[in-house]
Predict the structure.
Amino acid sequence: MIELGVVALLLGGLVALPALFAAVPWDVTFGIGVSLVALGMAIGVPAGAVYHIQLARAVRPTSARWWLHPTALHDRIPDGARGGVLRWFRIGAVGFVIAIAGCAMVAVGAWRS
């Protein structure tokens, strides 16, 4: 059932985004994109820092090299710390997606100018 919702959102986005970009002036698109990049970075960078600090603390007893491939170590996080570490991972991922959406809007705005 959730797959149907994802498909509906994708189809709606494929129809709505080109229509939106055609109706909105390029400078507004560019400005919103820059704002989204700033918002995504303001969310993602601190969340990523907290995630990496908490991950390092959680896997320290295993002497794993957490900075090389941190997502590969998610299964080594103790159950008591898993929720706290992965919460910051998800928040950082949301910030990343917002920043990438902003980059796409900046590119569209710059292309249309």
Q: What stands out?
A: The chain has a mean pLDDT of 88. DSSP finds three helices and no strands in the chain.
